[in-house]
Amino acid sequence: MTTRTRTESVDTPAGEARITWHPVPAGTAARLVLAVSHGAGGGIEARDLVALAAALPAHGVTVALVEQPWRVAGKKVAAAPKVLDEGWRGLWPALAAPGLPVVAGGRSAGARVACRTAAELGAAGVLALAIPLHPPGRPEKSRAGELTGAGLPTLVVQGGRDPFGRPAEFPPPTAQAPYELVEVPFGDHGFAVPKKADLSQDEALAVITGAVAAWLAGLSPRRARSGE
């Protein structure tokens, strides 16, 4: 099912950001907004973001694909984490403007931004796609504190062979830091799967969209209404 997309430019303290809106189709009630940003090595054309934007509107979820100011400006290198957070904070009012609960999300560096800022912004939850738990080959440089410190219902979707952190490397969730983790078998950091894998690329993407749709449907009504 296709949806009518629209693009919105938003001024932030870090520069001009851009939101591409994928609204729910006519006749479907919108329940919430899922705002997802890209990583440091690519844009909103990432396969997982494209798949979510195509699949979720039919489930009552408006998907907002966010391009950070550095990407809009055509720069090749991502901004520093502090600047990424400033850009995300600056565009949050536009994400909340439809009057729906907003789930903060992103892939890779975008997932780190969402984890760091979601609670202060009043997000209804956090979606972390391919979050870089540590630099490749440097497990001692763990960034687990960003994930466990999110303080909100969180879903992590991680490739089974992601060099930035395989699912088995993640700390166990606790009552103070609850999160759910879904593994995409054979997936790398971009959720690409080898041609000889036991599932196809389309099947791998279906794991992502199915898990995210189910998790969003399970957010508590109170939290989904208020973001509290």
Automatic annotation (TrEMBL):
Alphabetized InterPro entries for the sequence: AB_hydrolase_fold, KANL3/Tex30_Abhydrolase, NSL3/Tex30
Gene3D superfamilies linked to this entry: alpha/beta hydrolase (3.40.50.1820)
Phylogenetic classification of the source organism: Bacteria, Bacillati, Actinomycetota, Actinomycetes, Kitasatosporales
Domain of life: Bacteria
GO molecular function: hydrolase activity
Entry protein name: Hydrolase
Domain KANL3/Tex30 alpha/beta hydrolase-like: 31-216
Keyword Hydrolase: yes
SUPFAM superfamilies according to UniProt: alpha/beta-Hydrolases
Keywords: Hydrolase
